[in-house]
Write a structure and sequence with these properties.
- The chain has 223 residues and is α+β, with helices and mostly antiparallel strands.
- The chain has 4 helices and 13 strands.
- The radius of gyration is 28 Å and the shape is elongated.
- The N and C termini lie far apart (84 Å).
């Protein structure tokens, strides 16, 4: 199921150059440009507050946007670069590239874990350790999955979920193909780990004590 593509409103930028860019920033905008997709470069202005909020939300460089420019047809774009001020790191310029419906692109897709209540390992107090909250996939721009579901039912303590165990949506594939990387695992609770550690230490002490006794008896027998 494809997730909702967020809208990104913008205004056409009629003037270009450093002077026009500085004026745009004074007016509360971040200048940018849209290129690629067989069209001419399109200078735009994005409201600073809108862009700043989206940047802080995370995954900005791997999110597909529905760019809405006054006087232009909506177009899907993905960000290919954000320039920032060297002092305060605030955005000063942004570049977007047009994406067609059938374009193949790399996207970070979030993982959604379900079936916690049906996991014997979690019922015993095991801990779900998430190694990756999202996975980079090659997807079709017109059919981007909203998430990758992973069911935990039946998983025991010590079980591991790797990428090869996940049934990816049709038409998608992982960008990492040279290894079967880990997504998550169910580890033993710390209390159990501590208990096992204490038992091992106690066992070692008993063995040491028995060894000392044997040595002592041996020394006594020689005298």
């Amino acid at each position: 199921m494809t997730g909702k593509i967020p809208d990104l409103p913008a205004l056409p930028r009629t003037r270009t150059g450093k002077g026009a860019a500085r004026q745009a920033r004074r007016d509360g905008f971040v200048p940018g440009v849209v290129y690629g997709g067989g069209g001419d470069p399109l200078p735009i202005n994005v409201r600073f507050n809108t862009l700043f909020k989206m940047l802080n939300a995370g995954r900005f460089l791997s999110t597909l946007f529905n760019l809405q420019v006054d006087g232009q047809d909506d177009v899907r774009v993905i960000c290919r670069g954000v320039q920032r001020d060297v002092v305060n790191e605030l955005p000063t310029h942004v570049d977007f590239v047009r994406i067609h419906q059938d374009s193949r692109i790399n996207m970070q897709i979030p993982i959604a874990f379900t079936g916690h209540a049906e996991s014997p390992g979690l019922k015993m107090g095991g801990v779900l350790t998430v190694v990756r909250n999202e996975v980079e996939l090659v997807v079709t721009a017109g059919d981007i999955p909203a998430e990758i579901p992973i069911r935990l039912d039946g998983m025991e303590i010590g079980d591991v979920v790797t990428i090869s165990m996940i049934e990816l949506p049709e038409g998608t594939e992982a960008t990492i193909t040279d290894r079967d990387f880990v997504i998550a695992n169910i580890s033993a609770p710390s209390s159990l780990v501590e208990e096992v550690g204490e038992e091992e230490v106690a066992g070692d002490l008993d063995e040491d004590a028995a060894s000392d006794t044997a040595v002592s008896q041996g020394e006594g027998g020689e005298s």
